[in-house]
Design a protein that fits this description.
- With 205 residues, the chain is of the alpha/beta class.
- The protein has one domain: 3-Layer(aba) Sandwich (Rossmann fold).
- The model has no long low-confidence stretch (mean pLDDT 94).
């Protein structure tokens, strides 16, 4: 497991972030979520706020023509240096560099499963939950009332789906993108961490 990279795609409200945190603590390895924005900003020199505006959302929506990530990065004098596609490319660069360090880590979201699809020793997870549990978890974590929580779950999952489609050309919840899909409604966060840990023990040790 010395160079295992775990990628976690997650529905909003399913607990994917919490599972990432708990798995990080259990395995004693770092995890990266919003940190990726800061690292990409430092690497590119582009304002961190611009990365935040495009973070896991696509400005073109569902009907935007996909421009699948191909590894290229525009130069600073290019007209599309701060484009949505180039911001994605810089985050992808950071994700690849983290994987190339040959140290185990956990990467949350941002199409990391696609970016590292050809890399050995990458465990690609998809964390989901039924609608009611996503709403309840969002109410508990964010302090929203039910109406707002339901709105945010629908909105953010739509944004993540559009973002994934725009940059990968694939469908975000397609199980064929992942090695292991887990329903937190059935198991709870701690049990999910236990299941993932046992899977790693069997498959990567």
């Amino acid at each position: 497991m010395d160079d295992l990279v775990i990628t976690i795609a997650r529905e909003f409200g399913s607990g994917g972030h919490q599972i990432g945190e708990r798995l990080s603590k259990k395995l004693g390895i770092p995890y990266y979520d919003k940190d990726l924005i800061k690292l990409a900003s430092e690497d590119s020199g582009i304002n961190e706020g611009l990365f935040g505006l495009a973070d896991e959302k696509s400005s073109g929506g569902l009907f935007k023509k996909a421009k699948v990530y191909d590894g290229g990065i525009s130069k600073p004098d290019s007209s599309d240096f701060t484009s949505e596609e180039n911001l994605f490319s810089f985050q992808a660069k950071i994700i690849k560099e983290l994987a190339d360090k040959k140290c185990p880590c956990i990467i949350i979201g941002r199409c990391a499963d696609f970016i590292l699809a050809d890399r050995k020793n990458t465990l690609k997870l998809f964390i989901w939950a039924d609608k009611e549990n996503c709403i309840k978890n969002t109410m508990d974590v964010c302090g929203y009332d039910r109406k707002e929580a339901e709105k945010q779950v629908k909105k953010i999952n739509r944004e993540r789906s559009e973002y994934y489609k725009a940059h990968t050309g694939h469908e975000w919840p397609d199980v064929r993108n992942y090695d292991l899909c887990i329903n937190t409604s059935e198991h709870g966060f701690d049990k999910c961490v236990e299941i993932i840990s046992k899977y790693i023990d069997v498959m990567y040790k």
